[in-house]
Each structure stands twice: as structure tokens, then as C-alpha cells.
Batch of 3 targets.
Target 1
Amino acid sequence: LKLQLSPDVISFSSVMATLTSGHEAEELMAEMVELCSKNSDMRPDTVAYNTLIKVWGRSGDEIAGERSEAILNQMLDVYRDGSVDVRPDDVTYNSVIHNVANSNVPDSPHRARRLLEQMKKSYESGIIAVEPNIITYNSVLDAFAKSGRAESAKMAEELLFNIEESSDKGASDIEPDLYSYNIVINAWGSRGVATKAVHILDHLTSRSIEGRTSLTADVTTYNSVLHAWSQSSDRNAAIKALGLLEIMLKLAEGRADLNVQPNAYSFSTCINAFSKSKFPRKARQTRDLLRRMKKLSDDGQKNMRPNIYVYTAVLNACAYTFGRREEKEEALSIGLETFEELRQSGIGVNHVAYGSFIRLCRTLMQEKDARRNHFITRAFRQCCSDGQVGDYVLRQLRPIPDVYASSLKAYIDREGKVVKELPVSWTCNVCENRRRSNRKPTRRKR
């Protein structure tokens, strides 16, 4: 028996869902539109268009938000012309707003807000069958949080409290969820305004105590506040971060509330807060936090196992220690011990760790110390062998003219400028280099 099978919109949409390039997905969509004149089973429907928008979303292309909006407008035009199978739905709008939020363009918050209002009007006029939900509002909040603009965190907070107030008064069935509050806390945290982040946490805790148990702060909430303190200019930010970490540990003690149990990110963020501070003996404090992590990990909390970010934060705290000679000597001792521990851990030393180690040897060892150039030269050679020679490593090496010249003599001119490309084997494992090489040229639609 010979079966006569031909592709249809479902098979084309299934293929499209496997793509990672928005441009390729649009080419496939154009092929579907062309074929549908001969075969009505090929006519793109709402699912096909939603799939196209989602492909743009995961493509990472800088024009993903722009193209997603254009596709939405195309759907609306086709629907108004009588094609009921192309009616936008909540998935359409939520996906477009999500893509706009992640587009990293200056006006993304305002575009996301405009799309929200458009969705409301489309629902009220009967163009779409669903109204905005909390996923929609969270996508708009996310657009404000990710924009990094001075006023964005304030606008995100205002929108959050407007949603909350409408829900409390019964004017709307949409109620903020925990993710909504976490987004706004993170928005303030990214701006380094820790007091605002703490205010939202306190407000969230109050609502939870009032009976809204779904709004109980979790580890993501607390970590976002820790991040806020790590970015804060408050002179006591590190101490306040440590205090919050202790609260998390206390809440999770005896398995009372495992939802707030600190993880490696919690500790590394607190360590980072000390690293950036002018707190005396900060190297010792970060070393003690690292030891606490290892103890908790050894006791069975596997999510507490120190990672490369924890070790680099401790090395940074040592490398950027200032003050009295005895404090610098202690930081040097801790830095050497931590770097050796990292090398033996099996985690793998990255370019930031190598750069911080070179810096701490350069700044904390006296020039007459015979170990200084020996340690730095040995570290740089290992760095080359590991393929971790990045810009940060070179910046830390350059202030040591004799080591810099002898290590890079075949690649620099008399002024120390790199004039010949470094061997690929030296740089191949630097994350910043991989991110650059993975960026694909962007084509704009005409």
C-alpha cells in the first residue's frame, strides 16, 4: 500500500520549532505562504506565527523584538482581512513582549508598555479573545528591570503597586505573584539601590504574614537583595549583606524553611560585596565565608560547593586590599592559599582568577621580593597553557615591564602594544572571546 503524504502547516510548524535563527524561520514562513496558494493545508495559522515569534525570542538576535512586533502587526492585518485562523492570542502577545523585554534597546520598556495597552484595547474591541494576565504584566516588568535606565526601576515599582492596588480593591482579577516582586527587587538591585530592594522585601513579607502564603520570599528574592547590597555604594553594604545571609541561614536551619536555603550564589554575592568594600580585613572575612561554604558542602549541602565565581571573588578581595602592611601581608597569604586551593580543586582556573592572582602578587609583594616575578611568570605560563589569556590578564601583567616584555616579546612593539595576534592556544578558553566569536552578523529586513 503506497501512502500519499504531503506536508501541511503542522509539519512545517514542527520543523520551524527546531530552528534557532529567526531569519531561517522567516524564510520557512515565506515558503509556507507561497505554497498555500496551491495547498490550503499549508496556510499559516496562529500556532505557526507564534512558533516564528518564539524562534526569534531564542535566537539572541538584537532585532528579535523589532521583528516580533512586525509579525504581530502582520497577524493583526491578516486577521482583519478575514483570516480567522491567524487571530493573535495571549501566547502571541506574551511572547512578543518577552522578546521586546530581552531586546536590550533603550526604548524596550516603553514598547512593552505600549504593547500591553494594545493588548487591552484589542481584547476590549473583540479582536483577541483573552485579556492580559500576570505573565503579560511580568514581561513588562522584566522590560523595565533589564533596561538599566535611571527611571526604569521606579516605573517598574509603580506598575507593580498599581497591579497590587487594583487586585486589592477588586477592580482586577490579576494579582502579582512572587516572580513580580522578585523582578522589581532585581531592578532596584541592578541600580545598586539596596534600600529600595529591602523595602520591597519587607512589603512582600508583610503580605505573606497577612495570609498570602504564595508570596513567601524564596532564595531568589533574598539573593536579589544580596545582589543589591553587592552593588550598593553604602559604606556598610558588605556588613548588611552578611547580616541578610545570616538570616537566610537561620531561616533554613533545622529545615524550617528550605525555600530560603542559601546556595553558592548567595555566598559568592556576599563575598563580592566584601571584595568591593573598604572593610578592614576583608580578605579574612571572604576566606572565612569560603570555609563555611566548604563545611556546609561537606555536610551534605551539595548546592553549597564553591565554584569559580566564589574563588575569584575571594582572590579579588585579596588583590584589592589596601591599608596597613600587616593587612596586606595577611591578604597575600590568603590569596596564595586560595589560588593553590583553586588549582587543586579541579574546578579550573579562568582568566579572571589568573588576572586577580597576578594583581595580588604585583600589588601585595614588594618589588625586591624574589618570589614576586617568579610567581607571576609561572602563573602567566600556566595561563597560556590553559588558554585563558584575556584582556584582564594582560592589563594586570603590563605594569610589570620586565615580566611583560619577556613573556610577550614576540607579540609587542617597543611601547608594549600588542601588534601581533596572540596564539589561539593562549586565548581559546577565555569566555569573553567565545562570546565575541559566537555573535552572528545581524541582517536587517528591508
Target 2
Amino acid sequence: HGLQRPRAPPAPGLPLPQNMAAASRGSHQEIVLVAGSYEGQLVGFSIAASSLGSSAAAPAAATPLFAFKAHDGCIRAAAAAADHLVTGSTDNTLGVYNLRKRRAHGSLLQEGGGGAVSALSFYGGTHLLSGGGDGDVCIWRTSDWECLLRMKGHSAPIEALAVHPSGRLALSVCAGRKLRLWNLQTGKCNYTSALPQPTRVLLWTPRGDAYVTAAGSALRLHALGGDAAPVELLHERPPAAAAFASEDVLASGGASGAIELWDAGSGERLSQAAAAHASRIKCLVSTFRSCGGGGAHLSSASTDGSIRLWRLVAAGA
């Protein structure tokens, strides 16, 4: 597999992309990319599926949807699923939007004020998990945005969340290096582990049989069950973002500005776009899951001020 050159232009007015979300609309009709910045700005683009042809030379038609100040603080998290877009900020609020109607629903605040919201993870379009400065994990029902449950256990701010593909489990990591595995049916913590260092990289494999974290200059694939040591994917410089571009292909990016593709089964590096960005990659988002497994596009956001959309192609194509 390899990456074709960017198919969408940089986003104007976003000097420092902080986090990004992607969603697909209808029957593969469009890809919606949304990015938030340190200054609390939120910018959205729609990219029509008809412009995502096979020619790498033809740029995709990116239509600006909105650009506005969404939060008083830095946007530290963004997530999208179905019609929903949610952002989390250091102003302690979650911003809730309807992507289909292009409309803001309002803001959410945890009971007691909560803390800075730094992690979001959807399960389908029905439930959202949030975590942040107070160390609690909240489960929100998207039909009425009620907080159904607050799961306590972390003694430090939460850095990352990941809901299992089954919707029955979730992982959380805090700034104190503690990883917790939660049973979402009972709200109880089933497992804890100490990581080598805090990480904002946390995701499940599409099959749900392993999860990915980052430590130093490596991504680590941890298999569920057993005592096998994690498989390490060694990078030249520390990775800061990862996303599954397909069932078996993991994409990573970080301090080097490069995007690398890995075989998640063997740990072999498949290809690399060495100059994907001029500076550090902050976020990677794949349309693989939102397009029902048929999506083959990856989006990257960098501190160089650009957002780029890439097409995954098979080797020799």
C-alpha cells in the first residue's frame, strides 16, 4: 500500500490545527473534515465523492462549510459519527453540532463543572464517551445528550479514550500513565496497567483483538489476553497520531512530518510519505470506519497550518 499526494488544499485561518474529526454523509456522497485550533476556532470542509477520482493530479473540490470561534479555550478534542460532531475544550465544555443540518445544538457541561475536555470517542451515533481534567469518564446518550454515567478511577487528567468496536468495552489513559479497561455495561473497571509514559495515542484495531498506544519512538500493539509482549513499530522520531487506514493497515505520523503505513499483523513498515508535512503531524483521521470499511482516504493535520487528504492505493496501482 502507499499514499497518493494530498487531494485537498490547506485550511485557511487555521495556523495551528489541534484536533480533527471526519465523517461521511449518505451513500459515500461526501467527506466532511472538521478541524479545531489552539485559539478555539472551528473550520469545516465538504469534499464531494465525485471529486475523489483515481487521478492524483486532479485536486479534490473542497467546499468551505463554516469557520467560527467555537470555544473560549483551546480545542483539545473533536469527534464525529453519523450526523453528530462534538468538540472538547479547555473551557470545560463540549460543543455539540448537527453536521447534516449544519447547525449548533449548544454546549454541554459536566455536573460539578468537570474539567478541561481532552478526549472524545463515539460508539456509532448513539453514545459518546468524554474525559478530561477531572479524571472522570462520562457516557452521553446522543438522543437527548444526557450524561448516563460517570466512571471514576483516574487520579490524573485523561489524555485519550477509545471505545471497543463492540461497544461493550472502552480504554482510557491518564496523565499519570495509568491505562484502564472499562466494562461499559456495568460501569466498572476490569483491568489497569501502568504505561511507560503518558500518551494521547490510543485506539483499537478494527477487529477489536488488540489496541495501540505510543511510547517514545514506537507504536505498541497490545494483543488482548495472554502475556505476550506488545509488538513495537519503531519510528525515527516520536509518533503523535495514528489511525487505521484499512482492516490491516495502520497509519502513523508525528514529529518528523512523515506519514508511515504499517502492516498491523506483522509490524512491517509498508510505505512512507517522507514529506507529508513541513512540521509535526498532530492528528490523523481515517474514513475507513465511517464509510463502512470501503473508505480509502486518510486526512492529516499539522502544526504547519495545513490539512491534507490522502488516498490509500495498493502497491503497484
Target 3
Amino acid sequence: LFHQANIIITTMMAASITVVLLLSLQLLHPTNSFSTITMTSSPSPPLALNLKCKVKPTHRTKFLTAIQANQQSTRLNEPNNLQFVIGQDTEEENTFYFHEEFVNCEAFQEHMQTEHFKVYNAFVDDEEPFEEPPVICLYNLREESDDVVTKKRGVYKESFGLNVNLYPKASVRDDFLKVISDNKQGTDTVEELALQYTYGESTTIDGISEGSANTFHFHEQYKGKDHGKEGFDVHASMPHFAAWEEFVQTDPFEKDPEVFFFKIIED
């Protein structure tokens, strides 16, 4: 997913992003109400999380050690975790992005009760590694097959990722969803270098977050030369992407899109 270069440049150069869902450090502190949430229904649909954090340069090494330990334990020991990706911003070496997926919200709650999650929380409490509170977006996956949302996704080294926040006007919601659906279908079925095109709408979870209507979040991954950037460039040349660009020309957004590019970190 992409949009006109002038929007992208403006977005990437911005000093800060609009907070879509700011939970302060609730996700990182199990002692508050976040760890004792009540589900609204069961079972809930597959849940995804995008997170952006800025780490103090003095804490970079310790942070990476702590979060990668959490990542590996989550992958190995939580059967209901589908994905846990960590990426480093292409421009700012101490800005990082996560993308996580769980089979449902209950699995996410279970994740927060694990020992490895608590160890990571203790690190955050003790070391205070962040320059500012992380920005967290929670959303339910759309248009994913049962096969995708019932088994763990592959782990890819040397891949290129992006997390995106889009805010279509209510009046163009149906048109927006149609062009996004076509873009996803084309990416998933035609592009050999595309690894993932995931999206969903901001969701409400009791005790955690209040979703925002017509707020959509995305996670994409590509492979190829230049740490996967080749795959993204191919994506930007496809007909289904051209249709997306045409839609962007119609002034469809309540506020500017936010696009964050990163290189996936895998040992």
C-alpha cells in the first residue's frame, strides 16, 4: 500500500505522528487494569497490533535483547500467536515497529500473562528505555483466509516492511474498502515478491481501547534485493496499485495518511 510521493514524504518527515490509539504504557505494564480486561464476546476475530516506539540511544542494545527474547518466547511457546515482527525504521535507527497477530483477543490476553511478557515488562519498568510513550494500534483482520488466521505465518529475513494508518471519510467508506480489497487481492495473488498484505479496522476491546470508526491499519512485507525494497517497488508499479493512486487523487481522507517504512530484524 502506498500513495502519492508528496504525501509520503510529508508523512515520513513529520516530527511526530497522530496518535491513533495511545495507551500510554499500558501494554508494557501488567500491574494496571490492562492485564485484567473483560472480553465483550467469545470467540473474537483475529487481532492484530501495530506499535511504534522511539528508544533512547543509550538503551538500544538492552532494548533489542529484551524485545527479541520476548519475541522468540512468544513464537515458540504461544500456539495462538500467529506472528511477531520487529522492524527498524529506514531513516531513524532507534525507532522501531512491531506487528503482532493472535488468533483472537483472548489469545492476546493470555500473551500478557506469560512469564516472558512479564520479564519484558520488568525491563521496561526498571530501565525506562523509551524517549516517549509507544503508539499502539489494535485492529481486527479483514479478508484473511481461515488458513492464514489458524497457523503461524512464516519468518522472513532481509524483508522490507511498512505499517500504515489511513483515515477515509465516512462518505467514501464503501469506495475505499473496494479499492483496498482489490489492492489486497492483486498483491496476494499476482506479486511474487509480496510476502504479506494485512489490514483491518480499529477495534474496541473492553478495558484496553476504544476503536475509531473509519480508521484502518495495515502491515505489509516484501522480499527481494535491497532488503526487500525491490518487492515494494514492484508493488508500486502494479495496476491494482495504480487504481489506489487514482482513488487518492479524489481527496478521500479526513486527515493525512501515516506511512512508516522499516527493515525487518531477524537473526
